[in-house]
Amino acid sequence: MNFSEIKNHCNHVSKISAELIDKYLLYYAAERENLEPYMNAQIKKYKQASRELHPSSLNIFKSEFIAHRIFKKDGLVHRYLQQSEIKKIPAEQFEFLQANAAKPWRYCFAQLLDNPENEFFKMIDVFTGEEFLLYSRSIQQTLTEMNPRLWFLLISDNGMCYQTFGLVVPLNSFLPDDIYFFGTEINPDIDSDEKLMNELEKNPFPFFMLTIVASHPVVYSGDHEMRICQAYDDYLNFDTKKLEKDFEIELRNGVYKLSLRHWTENPHFAIAYFDTIENCLLRTAFTYEGFYKLTEAMEQYGLALNAEPDISVTPTIINTGSKILNKKIQYNPYDKLFVTDKKQENDESLKKMNQFTQKLVHVINSGKEIDIKKLADDAGISEETANQLYSSFKENLAKKKG
Prior knowledge:
The protein is an alpha+beta fold. The protein is built from 16 helices and 14 strands. The protein has helices spanning 3-32, 35-45, 47-50, 55-71, 77-80, 84-87, 91-102, 137-142, 176-186, 193-202, 205-208, 288-299, 315-325, 341-366, 372-379, 383-401; strands at 106-117, 120-125, 131-135, 150-157, 162-164, 169-171, 220-221, 224-225, 228-234, 247-252, 255-260, 271-275, 280-285, 311-313. β10 (247-252) and β11 (255-260) form a beta hairpin. α2 (35-45) crosses α4, α14 (341-366) crosses α16 (383-401) and α15 crosses α16. The model has no long low-confidence stretch (mean pLDDT 91).
């Protein structure tokens, strides 16, 4: 593969794009389709999150949205190609429009598979499974600072590889399950990857807002990554008494809370709930290990369970999703039945740890001197806990860069 030839082609396409799209077509479409009021209304809809974004980022997202409207599948470009004003543009630019009309632009969440050449990347769209070659200076630069698990991109096919338009958004701590979960909170009717992508194509603005946590690190407690793991199972004749040896059992309003002994404290919180009215079992934990231990313990009593959680999401997507969508995301319908001072204390502790990590990332990104004691005091955690979190953060950052 001749990467030098492909790079020259990409740079040529970028020059055409800058002249045609950035300097002319975005303004043409925005005025003709009266898009400005709609975009402002969308940003206002997510105002709690949009306040945390720099105005320049919001302007770029507007440009992305307009460009996507033009070049998406069945986009405005097909109509524009028939208009006399567009037909007057230089022949090379008109051919560019024709080529992009035949190859629709699309949003995607992608993971990096390989970096075969400087500024070239083999990527995979995590929701369609498509692998593609991407040219991006922004990704190469970002990789000198972090190694994100996921990328949010608007991509176009230039005939030799793909290129990006607008902001290249690294999502440092998210996995595909986090995005899927967020999508179902935007639209509860989403029950497939295809429907998720349709929602993204139709309404990208809430997904734009994920940029506010782009650089947030994976949250660890010691060696354990903090993820909310859950699985639902249907059971008709579930005998809770058999589990008394390994579980602490409580009953409220027809729901049994089954707490796995030695695994219910921070960070694991391995607990199951059996709803006698709905005849369903919910397994929950805040770490993968806690979930697997919970499942293993229940299987010893003859229960046939899937070893993998149905969902596995970060506390960050729960907190961020609540902020973006301006609602409290309820991920455990039974939790409130068993609220205790201890439970509230654990939840508050997890929230404070997350706040500390967010403040730490902000200080690191700003280049300021790190004052662990002050950050700990601001977040309301002990300096000892803060030092443990900072140590885990540095270790995981070193592993990624290594």
